[in-house]
Each structure stands twice: as C-alpha cells, then as structure tokens.
Amino acid sequence: VLGATSAMSADLPGKSAPAAPSPIFASKSFYAGVNGGAIVTDGINTNAPWTVGVVGGYNIASIGPIGIAAEGTYDYTKGNTNDVAGNIVGGYSFGSVTPYALAGVGYRFADIKNEAIWNVGVGFKIAVTSSIDVDTRYRRVDNFDRTAGEDRVTVGVNYKF
Q1: Can you list the positions of beta strands (E) in the chain?
Q2: Is the CB of residue 58 less than 8 Å from the CB of residue 160?
Q3: Which residues of 99-134 are buried (b: 16+ CB within 10 A; e: fewer)?
Q4: How sure is the predictor about 151, in pLDDT bands with cuts at 50, 70 and 90?
Q5: Separation of alpha carbons 27 and 17, rounded Å
Q6: Model's pTM, two decimal places?
Q7: pLDDT tens across 61-100, in order?
Q8: Which residues, including other chains, have CB under 8 Å from residue 84's CB and lie 6 or more apart?
Q9: CB of 3 closer than 8 Å to CB of 16
Q10: Contact 96/21 with Cβ under 8 angstroms?
C-alpha cells in the first residue's frame, strides 16, 4: 500500500535584514546644530581656550554617496570675539559615517578689530539616528592678511529637518 503525503508551507515570521544606514547627504534637507570646542592656536585672542557656536545648513545636492551642503556658522570665542561665515561642505558617505571638507568666507567682530575672514577645514559626521548627527571638525580661521589665524577643534550635534 502506497501512502500519499502532502506538504504544506507557510510563511513563517522571520528576521528581516536591518536597513542600511542612510548617508548624511541622502536627501535634500535642512539641518541645525550646536557645537563647542577648543582653540588649539590663536592669533587674535591670546586668552581664548574655548569656542561655542551654532550651525545651520542645507544639503543641496547628492550623487550616490557624494554630497554638497551650504551652511552658515556663528562662533563665539572667549574674549568677546564673534565670527559669522558661509561655507560650502563636500563629503563622501560610508554608511553612517561621512568625512567632509569645507571652505568659506565671513566676518569677525572683535574688541580689537573687525575684519573679513576665511576658513577651511575637515571633519566627519556620524548619523546616530535618521535625524541626529554628531559632527566633529577642525577649522583654520584667519583674516585675509593671514595675521590673526587660529585652529579650532569642535564637537557638535546637528538635527536634520
């Protein structure tokens, strides 16, 4: 006697693969943040060991993992020095980590002298969530005569809208 058997299958609940982290420049979006850090070398304000600031920007373009943002910054340095600058930021995302370079121009309001400034720098952002990034950066800030330069290292948190 031959017996007949049948097989039935059902979709069993399983684990889905985790979603890949989205790159910092994945979509056009606004971001705003706060930062603080140290003045490593200082050419204008000899008693300025720290700086705090705010940043606001917009991710304007992305091609795959490559992205470009425009941002504005405001920095206060101990000793009553205030800087405002506009920067272009270009980066390359490796998953949730994005190293970048930046360059821009601005203006410094200081007790001893007001002047135009430039800044260049490098940094990296780490996407903690889809809306929050940790941003670490180094910037060289100087006037156009190159007589009042300072090197800044900061760590901040950005929120993407």
Answers
A1: 30-42, 50-63, 66-77, 81-92, 97-110, 114-127, 132-143, 150-160
A2: no
A3: ebebebebebebeeeebebbbebebbbebeeeeebe
A4: very high
A5: 22
A6: 0.80
A7: 988 899 999 999 999 988 788 999 999 999 999 989 999 9
A8: 72, 73, 74, 106, 107
A9: no
A10: yes
